[in-house]
Specification:
Blueprint lengths: L34 H26 L13 H9 L6 E3 L5 H7 L3 H9 L32 H14 L6 E6 L6 H13 L3 E7 L2 E2 L2 E2 L10 H6 L3 E6 L3 H17 L4 E6 L18 H9 L3 H11 L5 H14 L2 H4 L9
Parallel strand pairs: 1-2, 2-3, 3-7, 6-7
Antiparallel strand pairs: 4-5
Length: about 350
C-alpha cells in the first residue's frame, strides 16, 4: 500500500530570461525580438502605466465611478499580447487592458467605456473597465470571477471543429483558480483537446486574501498535470520570458490541438481596485519594494537600452505624446450618457 505524497518536496522551477538588471541570464532559451516589436512593447507598457495613473486619479476626482489598474503586471499584459495573432480570441478577466491597447484600442475608447457615454460600444450597460471589442476579438469582460474560463473552452472547441489556424487565450487571477469554473474548464479542455491557453496571473493576492490562505499546492502550475494539461511557470515580470512562453504555448495549442496552462508569477502593486485599500492587509514596504525594485517596465527598458534601441530623448518624446493622449480635460470632456 502506497499513498502519493501531498507534495513532491521540490518547487516547480520558474522560467526566466532577464535578470533584475535587464541582462540575459546565461544559457537562456528564448524567442528573439526585433527592434520594432521590442520598442512597441515598451511603448505600450509605458502607455498603459500612464493611462492607469490618469484614470485612477479621474475616479478619485469623481469623473468615473470605478477603476482598477494593471500596475506591476504590465509585462503579462503586453508581452502576451505581442506573442499572439490578431485572429486569436481573448477572454479576459479584468486586468488585461494592455491586450486591447496592443491591438489598437485607443485611449479615448477606454475612456468612453469608463464613462458609459454615447460612444461606448456597450452603451453604458456595463460598469467601468468592462471593455469589449468585436473588432479586436476581445470578448467583453464580465464581473463574476472565472466564468470566462469554461466559455473559452467552448469557443476553442468551435475553432477546432472549424479547423481554424487560431486559438483562444483566457486569463484569470490566482483567486479565480479557487472557483469551480477553473477546474471545470481545465477538465473540459483536456477531454475535448481544445486549443486554449489558460494564463493565470498569480500576483499573490485575491483582493485581501493571500495565496497562503487560498491553497496548499505549489502554486497553480501543478494543477495542469492533475488534469492532463501541459503547463509552465514563468516570471510574469520578465517580458522576454512571458513572450517566449506564450509564443510556444500558442504554437502547441494550435499545432497539437491541446490546452496549455501558463502560471505567470507577479505582484499586484496597486490596490485591488478603487474600492480597496491594500495597505490595510499588507505592509507598505512590500508594495514599495515591488514597485521600485521589481518593476517590469524598468527591467525591460534596461534591456531595450542595452541593445541601443532606446534613449532618454525617446523616453521624453514618448511620455510627452502619451501625456497629450491621456489629458484628463480632453478625454473626459464628454457628458456621461447612461442607458436607462
Amino acid at each position: 500500500m502506497r499513498f502519493l505524497s501531498e507534495s513532491s518536496g521540490k518547487r516547480i522551477p520558474c522560467y526566466r530570461v532577464l535578470n533584475e538588471n535587464g541582462e540575459i541570464i546565461t544559457g537562456s532559451d528564448y524567442e528573439q525580438l526585433s527592434e520594432e516589436v521590442s520598442v512597441k512593447i515598451y511603448s505600450n507598457m509605458v502607455s498603459l502605466q500612464m493611462m492607469d495613473t490618469v484614470f485612477y486619479e479621474a475616479q478619485r476626482q469623481g469623473r468615473i465611478s470605478f477603476y482598477l489598474t494593471s500596475a506591476g503586471e504590465e509585462a503579462i499584459n503586453i508581452a502576451s499580447a505581442a506573442a499572439l495573432s490578431a485572429d486569436d480570441i481573448i477572454l479576459p478577466q479584468y486586468r488585461e487592458p494592455g491586450i486591447l491597447l496592443w491591438r489598437g484600442f485607443t485611449i479615448q475608447e477606454f475612456a468612453n467605456q469608463c464613462l458609459g457615454n454615447k460612444d461606448d460600444y456597450g452603451k453604458g450597460r456595463q460598469m467601468p473597465i468592462h471593455y469589449g471589442s468585436k473588432k479586436h476579438n476581445f470578448v467583453t469582460i464580465s464581473s463574476p470571477i472565472a466564468t470566462q474560463l469554461p466559455q473559452a473552452v467552448g469557443i476553442a472547441y468551435s475553432l477546432k471543429m472549424d479547423r481554424k489556424d487560431a486559438c483562444v487565450v483566457t486569463y484569470t487571477g490566482d483567486g479565480g483558480t479557487s472557483e469551480g469554473d477553473f477546474h471545470a474548464a481545465l477538465n473540459f479542455s483536456a477531454v475535448t483537446e481544445a486549443p486554449v491557453v489558460f494564463i493565470c496571473r498569480n500576483n499573490g493576492w485575491a483582493i485581501s486574501t493571500h495565496i497562503s490562505e487560498q491553497f496548499r499546492s505549489d502554486g497553480i502550475v501543478v494543477r495542469g498535470r492533475a488534469y492532463g494539461i501541459r503547463s509552465i511557470r514563468v516570471d510574469g515580470n520578465d517580458v522576454l520570458a512571458v513572450y517566449s512562453a506564450i509564443h510556444a504555448a500558442r504554437e502547441m495549442a494550435i499545432s497539437e490541438q491541446r490546452p496549455v496552462l501558463v502560471e505567470a508569477l507577479s505582484y499586484r502593486v496597486g490596490h485591488h481596485s478603487t474600492s480597496d485599500d491594500s495597505t490595510k492587509y499588507r505592509p507598505v514596504d512590500e508594495i514599495v519594494y515591488w514597485k521600485m525594485e521589481r518593476n517590469p517596465v524598468n527591467r525591460f527598458r534596461k534591456w531595450v537600452e542595452r541593445n541601443g534601441w532606446w534613449s532618454e530623448e525617446k523616453e521624453s518624446e514618448l511620455r510627452s505624446s502619451v501625456k497629450k493622449q491621456v489629458k484628463v480635460d480632453r478625454i473626459f470632456h464628454i457628458s456621461i450618457f447612461f442607458i436607462a
